[in-house]
Amino acid sequence: MNKSIGTKNESSLHRTLKFQYTKPGGMTEVEVGDFIADGINKDGEYIEVQTGSFAPLEKKVRELASHSKVRIVHPIAVKKIIQVYDKRKELLYTRRSPLKGSLWDVFTALVHAPKLPLIKNVVIEVVLADITEKRIKDGKGAWRRRGISIYDKELTAWHESTLLGKKADFLRFVPFEKNEEFTVNSLAEQAGIKKETAQKALYVLTKMKVVKRIGKKQRAWVYVR
How many CB atoms sit inside 10 A of residue 94's CB? Predict the structure, then answer.
């Protein structure tokens, strides 16, 4: 059987959230069919911690959801501190990332799995937190980081969490009245987000049938709730 990897390459962030959502009374690394769930809590709900895209989760979540409820825990860094170490893992310097995450970043994770929230028994819990990212100058990292590798992430502060469990929960991302027409640009302006984020959000919300694309005006797609 082609089972999931389990704890291989698990970050401190992933491990902390896994134990937080399964304990006390639950278990971690639970075998379910061809997959290994991150855990199961005392109420019998499967826990899956996903720090990146939801695309790799779709088959696994469908399998888990056929047996019981599933909670996908997705952390987003409101504040990210970057620590860079040398090869001996001695701290060289610390800096704060200029990027500031928000609840809207859930659409970056959903853009390649837009129908995941529609699976029966599935709820997404978005955790807004402060995260410390530890990097090492080993020459093996991505070119955009000049060969610096990410070797761990840690949860340093918890701000709040939001549950997204049904289509109605996603209406919070549509700050317009029913049948009021809007575009990517007007959503970005109204919500105070980047155009790229608004594009991802509307792609996902359209696939979920939370919003509907009704045509074009002056080369811009028009949507309604």
Answer: 10
Give per-residue pLDDT as tens, 131-150: 999 999 887 766 566 678 89
Answer for the pair 180, 225: CB distance below 8 angstroms, yes or no. yes
- 14 and 106, same domain (yes or no): yes
Contact 133, 84 (CB under 8 A): no
Count of the separate structural domains present in the chain: 2
Helix-helix angle 195-207:184-191, to 10 degrees: 110
Asked whether the beta carbons of 95 and 145 are under 8 A apart, the reply is no
CB proximity list for 168: less than 8 A, separation 6 or greater: none
Q: What's residue 181's pLDDT?
A: 97
Same domain, 171 and 160: no
| Final residue before a domain boundary, out of 139, 165, 191 | 165
- Residue 173 and residue 207 in one domain: yes
Provide the CATH number for the domain around residue 198: 1.10.10.10
Cα separation values, 177 from 161, 170, 188, Å = 26, 14, 16
CA angle 160/163/168 to nearest 5° reads 135
> Which tokens sit at 156?
């340093």
Inter-residue contact 164 to 54 (CB < 8 Å) = no
Token look-up 């799995």 returns 113
The residues that bridge with 128 in the sheet, in sequence order, are 76, 160
Can you tell me whether residue 143 is helix, strand or coil?
helix
Spell out, as residue ranges, where the chain has pLDDT lower than 50. Answer: 1-2, 4-5
Expressed as residue numbers, the domain containing 197 is 167-225
